[in-house]
Design goal:
Helix content is about 30%, strand content about 30%. The chain is α+β, with helices and mostly antiparallel strands.
């Protein structure tokens, strides 16, 4: 098969099937902390110092709810898990937020598939950080 047909066919098939990938096994706040990123090539994390971590978590929840192709999967007192789907191929990234004390909010965004996210997860956390008052 000619190379140009493969370049057209593979993205089309990926787009049709919306490869979601497995849910990461290390989701959740263990001891109040999120799991570290195993690879910075497809994961980003941040720790933000805020005036009130519960208020910051609520603010980010509202931002996430209004973001296209995003769904909040779990939200409880000090933890939030949401999924983001890419526009074209439907690749899914998992976002976690954890308020582990009154003034610290942890964030982690990880791709389910692939070896590289092309900086998407780090950019997502950067954009979210602009929505809260970081000290």
């Amino acid at each position: 098969m000619p190379a140009f047909l493969l370049q057209i066919t593979i993205p089309l098939l990926l787009g049709l099937f919306h490869f979601i990938g497995p849910v990461p096994a290390d989701l959740g706040a263990d001891g109040g902390h999120l799991s570290p990123c195993a690879s910075p090539a497809h994961c980003a994390s941040a720790t933000w110092q805020v005036a009130d971590s519960s208020v910051a978590l609520d603010q980010l929840s509202e931002v996430i709810k209004t973001t296209p192709r995003t769904e909040i999967v779990t939200q409880r007192d000090n933890y939030l898990h949401a999924t983001y789907s890419s526009r074209i191929f439907g690749f899914v990234d998992d976002l976690e937020l954890a308020a582990n004390n009154d003034v610290t909010l942890e964030a982690r965004s990880i791709s389910r598939l692939g070896e590289s996210d092309l900086g998407v997860n780090a950019q997502r956390l950067e954009n979210l950080s602009k929505s809260i008052n970081i000290q």
